[in-house]
């Protein structure tokens, strides 16, 4: 008997660079992802990839995931070490997600591997946390919980309001007659080679001055003397507010307001958090002038990757669309 696991990628509608200070985010799964198929058993993990070079070959007792070759196998190695996996696996991985484009391709691989290796889907938070630790350990990126938790907890037709302090998630139904579109800037990046860790450290320094950013008011953020830390704190505090404002806009079916909030979020990520690029800014500008688009912003960590827009189902794009549709369901596992 074989096993087939599907783990989707995710796109975040609003609430970026907030998860690692216990903030809010509003992500959803998309219809592209990672599929891992094979036979559990034995004491080795052997996984070939349809897109990536090299074979992932690991003993169950792996101790240092960060030195594994080829580099993509480090995500699997991190999971093997964190679960820890008790049985081996012989199989193939195949991905329809563009890599390094802000759609959580690494988290999708981690979650697929964890579920194939016996991770418990009935405890989504523990599974997501094991995968988050796997990423820290495998590639040294101090990521938050958003990507892994979204992939595990995602629900058809709903975006998730993640509260990264309580580590809880609440489904928010997307209004009818609206679609989410993901557009690729063409700028690939790997988080380990970006200032992601530096931003996280800056947020921590801001918290040392004004206390938890989740609780801070915009006025408190403005009291920070250091201009860089003040801007970082301003982004986080206002972004948390925008998440709940977008939830309200969806509940009120106010798509014009929803679009404005996304545009304001992009400006904050660009001007206060310094994670945008000229390509992402141009794409957002272009989308704002496109008929049927309510709003657009960069999505995920930034520094390149993708832009997300909220649009009318009839909107037409002359841009590299990676995916469009409504929130997809999360990870699945079946015996085949
Ligand atoms: C990456 C990380 C997430 C989150 C986003 C930015 O996707 O993996 O934890 O911090 O960046 O919102």
Model description:
This protein is of the alpha+beta class and 336 residues long. It has 2 domains: 3-173 and 328-335, Ribosomal Protein S5, domain 2 (2-Layer Sandwich); 179-325, Alpha-Beta Plaits. It is 35% helix and 25% strand. The chain has 9 helices and 13 strands. The strands form 3 sheets. The protein has a 6-stranded mixed beta sheet, covered by helices on one side. α5 (196-210) crosses α7 (227-251). The chain is globular. The termini are close together. The model has no long low-confidence stretch (mean pLDDT 97). Bound molecules: alpha-D-galactopyranose (GLA).
Order of helices and strands: EEEEEHEHHHEEEHHHHHEEEE
What percentage of residues falls in helices of 4 or more residues?
Answer: 25-40%
CATH topology of the largest domain: Ribosomal Protein S5, domain 2
Q: Please tell me the overall pLDDT.
A: 97
Q: Give me the side-by-side strand order of the main sheet.
A: 5-4-6-3-1-13
- Small ligands present: alpha-D-galactopyranose
Largest sheet: 6 strands, mixed
Shape: globular
């Amino acid at each position: 008997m074989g096993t087939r696991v599907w783990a989707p990628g995710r796109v975040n509608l609003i609430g970026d660079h907030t998860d690692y200070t216990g903030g809010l985010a509003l992500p959803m799964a998309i219809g592209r992802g990672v599929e891992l198929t094979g036979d559990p058993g034995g004491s080795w993990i052997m996984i070939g990839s349809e897109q990536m070079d090299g074979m992932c070959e690991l003993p169950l007792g792996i101790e240092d995931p960060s030195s594994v070759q080829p580099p993509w196998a480090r995500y699997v190695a991190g999971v093997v070490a964190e679960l820890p996996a008790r049985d081996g696996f012989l199989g193939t991985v195949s991905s329809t997600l563009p890599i390094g484009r802000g759609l959580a391709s690494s988290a999708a691989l981690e979650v697929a591997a964890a579920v194939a290796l016996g991770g418990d889907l009935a405890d989504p938070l523990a599974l997501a946390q094991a995968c988050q630790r796997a990423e820290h350990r495998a590639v040294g990126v101090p990521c938050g919980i958003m990507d892994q938790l979204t992939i595990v907890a995602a629900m058809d037709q709903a975006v998730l309001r993640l509260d990264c302090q309580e580590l809880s998630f609440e489904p928010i139904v997307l209004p009818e007659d609206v679609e989410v579109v993901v557009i690729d800037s063409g700028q690939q990046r790997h988080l380990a080679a970006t200032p992601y860790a530096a931003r996280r450290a800056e947020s921590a320094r801001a918290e040392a001055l004004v206390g938890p950013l989740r609780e801070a008011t915009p006025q408190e953020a403005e009291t920070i003397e250091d201009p860089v830390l003040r801007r970082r704190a301003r982004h986080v505090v206002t972004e948390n507010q925008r998440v709940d404002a977008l939830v309200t806009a969806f509940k009120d079916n106010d798509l014009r307001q929803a679009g404005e909030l996304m545009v304001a979020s992009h400006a904050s990520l660009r001007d206060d958090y310094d994670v945008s690029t000229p390509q992402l800014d141009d794409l957002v500008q272009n989308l704002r002038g496109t008929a049927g688009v309510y709003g657009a912003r960069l999505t995920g960590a930034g520094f390149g990757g993708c832009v997300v827009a909220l649009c009318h189902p009839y909107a037409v794009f002359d841009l590299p669309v990676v995916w469009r549709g409504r929130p997809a369901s999360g990870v699945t596992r079946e015996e085949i």
